[in-house]
């Protein structure tokens, strides 16, 4: 028992894609960190894959390429399916594990099949991600990698960032048809802010290390000030012109009043 690695769950995400649920769990033991991917079908059947953090990062990049290809394809044609069903394939190798990625099409639709094999033998594990859910899957994987990094090696828990306090809560805002999320996180490299832009099915994000926040603030503030000056200039000129026009009208009213009282003002208004 004492020799068994103690496994700790650090984070988890759940995705519902069509009739399937996918769980992405970041785990850590004495050998390092990894992501366990579990697929649960409608009947409750579960399939699992294990990805080292570096392999998960490679998988994320492949998901982007597969998603771009899928977006460029026309609607499925059941009468003209590929002979082997494959539209695109890739292979990933990590230590004694090999992963086969196949974007496939059959009479039920398009999907990405991910198979894991071990060179020493053992059962073959695989999951199938519906093609329209690849971007959502990639974004969830990206969030976990940004938070926990892509380093596989085991770490002593005393290393990394020395900050042990409570991080600020995340915030969000809506601008027209977009949402922006501001999330504070921490990994072995330190504290960071992740800013995500979400619009329909599109999501992109940037990560800013805490030590750079003040520089970003200064640059952003400088642009705010400069744009305020640019916007205020024509506004000021318009106000000046309005004031001059007001003086002229006042003078006209004064002169008219001297000649005919309130009726003169009414004549100016009607013109």
Automatic annotation (TrEMBL):
An example molecular function term from Gene Ontology annotations: purine-rich negative regulatory element binding
Transmembrane domains' residue ranges: none
Region (Disordered): 149-169, 232-271
Name of the protein: Transcriptional activator protein Pur-beta
Gene Ontology cellular component list: nucleus
Similarity remark: Belongs to the PUR DNA-binding protein family.
PANTHER family tied to this protein: PUR-TRANSCRIPTIONAL ACTIVATOR, PURINE-RICH BINDING PROTEIN-ALPHA, ISOFORM B
């Amino acid at each position: 028992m004492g020799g068994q690695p103690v496994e700790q769950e650090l984070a988890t995400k759940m995705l519902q894609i069509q009739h399937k649920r996918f769980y992405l769990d970041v785990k850590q033991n004495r050998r390092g960190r990894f992501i366990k991917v579990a697929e649960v079908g409608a009947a409750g059947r579960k399939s699992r894959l294990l990805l080292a953090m570096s392999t998960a990062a490679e998988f994320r990049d492949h998901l982007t390429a597969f998603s771009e290809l899928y977006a460029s394809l026309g609607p499925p044609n059941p009468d003209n399916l590929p002979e082997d069903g494959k539209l695109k394939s890739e292979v990933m190798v990590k230590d004694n594990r090999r992963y086969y990625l196949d974007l496939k099409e059959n009479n039920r639709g398009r999907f990405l099949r991910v198979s894991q094999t071990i060179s020493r033998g053992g059962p073959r594990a695989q999951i199938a991600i519906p093609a329209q859910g690849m971007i959502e899957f990639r974004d969830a994987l990206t969030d976990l990698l940004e938070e926990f990094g892509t380093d596989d090696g085991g770490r002593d828990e005393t290393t990394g960032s020395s900050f042990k306090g409570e991080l600020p809560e995340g915030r969000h805002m809506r601008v027209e048809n977009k949402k922006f999320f501001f999330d504070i996180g921490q990994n072995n490299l330190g504290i960071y802010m992740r800013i995500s832009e979400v619009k329909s099915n599109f999501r992109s994000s940037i990560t800013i290390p805490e030590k750079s926040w003040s520089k970003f603030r200064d640059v952003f503030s400088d642009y705010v000030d400069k744009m305020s000056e640019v916007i205020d200039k024509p506004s000021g000129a318009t106000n000046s012109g309005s004031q001059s026009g007001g003086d002229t009208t006042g003078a006209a009213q004064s002169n008219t009043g001297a000649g005919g009282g309130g009726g003169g003002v009414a004549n100016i208004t009607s013109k």
